[in-house]
């Protein structure tokens, strides 16, 4: 049964859509706010979203709807989203369709048109190619993709290693899409972005009152991923107490929500990723050896971008898009740089270059003309981001795409210090 999430602050509309969709054999989730919608998509299997454009009393600008649409697409780029909106906001709805929304219908909607649009989008989702877009040309990546395809079919747990920004999440998505679980949920968890005291609740769920702030029961990521794949990024950040529970799930498929004695059973493939040396963490007593071997049914290692330089120009062309091209001096400029931030740094650099480009051809001056005047070294870039956030480690780590622990290690490595005001 397909699950449809309906987002609208009007209870009458929620009731009407719940009735219409339920009698046509759809499971309906109804929420009234942007926050609730994002939580639903993060923690549950959602096949399609129907969303309004405004969720606060008195608002008519449609900005809330645009923000929700962008956030949903960031969480799941392939998620079909149907916009329902007042006649006065049709222009905004049409702009979202151009940005990737599946369809739009004005209020009051025609039931048959809405059902037809839902059926069409769900059918398209089923028949959509499972090929995950990966851009590469190097021999090293070609060999890795060949191995990854073989591993995907084996349905074993996978550990992906490699430096930050090298594309570990992209490779995890590829393994899921090439597996027998491709039509089931692919749930992502960044362990480096979750406070340690909340990690277990995030993974296994919690009952109401299980801890301070748990005002209602919530499902964990394992429940959301049942039948599919759970991607645990920055797995080295999981505390030992959580490691023990994770080991049990991998061994038996069983767990309990925090605050509950009810044992649940799931069928989940786990793909984990890290830029840390887990063998060293095991030696230091920070990571369980038995968990490491459960996670590491097969290890896939992504090399840093400067070790597979044949991928730089194909990736840069992908990031600047079909409407632009790179000049020869731009290609030379990109090939001479060491890319300490890997593919993520290349992508951000290309996006900034488009701002400075004059015409369709992106030249070296567009890269050199960025606000930073040149591509900063890793050390200089980290210092700049830390100073920007007044050395608030959590905020700086999020912008850099690092875990807090990794950022602390880099600060020590480069002997960075807070600038005097």
Automatic annotation (TrEMBL):
The keyword Transcription regulation applies. This is Sigma-54 dependent transcriptional regulator. The keyword Phosphoprotein applies. Signal peptide: none annotated. Keywords: ATP-binding, DNA-binding, Nucleotide-binding, Phosphoprotein, Transcription, Transcription regulation. The modification 4-aspartylphosphate is found at residue 52. Residues 3-122 form the Response regulatory domain. It comes from the Bacteria. Residues 134-355 form the Sigma-54 factor interaction domain.
């Amino acid at each position: 049964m397909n699950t449809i999430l309906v987002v609208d602050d009007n209870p009458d509309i929620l009731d009407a859509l719940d009735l219409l969709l339920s009698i046509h054999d759809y499971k309906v989730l109804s929420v009234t706010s942007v926050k609730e919608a994002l939580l639903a998509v993060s923690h549950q299997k959602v096949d399609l979203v129907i969303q309004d454009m405004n969720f606060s009393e008195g608002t008519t600008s449609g900005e809330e709807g645009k923000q929700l649409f962008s956030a949903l697409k960031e969480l799941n780029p392939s998620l079909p989203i149907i916009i329902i909106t007042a006649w006065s906001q049709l222009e905004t709805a049409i702009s979202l369709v151009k940005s990737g929304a599946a369809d739009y219908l004005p209020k009051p909607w025609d039931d048959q048109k809405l059902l037809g649009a839902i059926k069409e989008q769900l059918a398209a989702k089923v028949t959509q190619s499972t090929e995950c877009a990966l851009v590469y040309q190097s021999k090293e990546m070609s060999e890795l993709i060949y191995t990854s395809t073989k591993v995907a079919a084996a349905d074993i747990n996978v550990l992906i290693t490699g430096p930050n920004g090298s594309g570990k999440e992209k490779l995890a998505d590829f393994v899921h899409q090439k597996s027998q679980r491709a039509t089931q949920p692919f749930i992502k968890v960044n362990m480096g972005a979750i406070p340690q005291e909340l990690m277990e609740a995030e993974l296994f769920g919690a009952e109401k009152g299980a801890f301070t702030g748990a005002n209602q029961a919530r499902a964990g990521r394992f429940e959301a991923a049942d039948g599919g794949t759970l991607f645990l990024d920055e797995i080295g950040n999981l505390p030992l107490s959580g490691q023990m529970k994770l080991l049990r799930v991998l061994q038996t498929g069983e767990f309990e929500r925090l605050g509950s004695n009810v044992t649940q059973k799931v069928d989940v493939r786990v793909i984990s990723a890290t830029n840390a040396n887990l063998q060293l963490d095991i030696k230091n007593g920070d990571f369980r050896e038995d968990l490491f071997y459960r996670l590491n049914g097969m290890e896939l290692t992504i090399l840093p971008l400067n070790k597979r330089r044949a991928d730089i120009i194909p990736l840069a062309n992908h990031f600047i898009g079909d409407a632009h091209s790179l000049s020869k001096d731009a290609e030379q400029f990109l090939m001479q740089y060491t890319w300490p931030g890997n593919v993520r740094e290349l992508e951000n650099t290309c996006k900034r270059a488009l701002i400075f480009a004059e015409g369709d051809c992106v030249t070296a001056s567009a890269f050199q003309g960025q606000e930073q005047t040149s591509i900063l070294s890793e050390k200089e870039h980290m210092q700049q981001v830390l100073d920007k956030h007044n050395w608030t480690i959590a905020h700086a780590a999020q912008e850099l795409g690092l875990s807090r622990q990794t950022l602390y290690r880099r600060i020590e490595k480069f002997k960075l210090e807070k600038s005097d005001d």
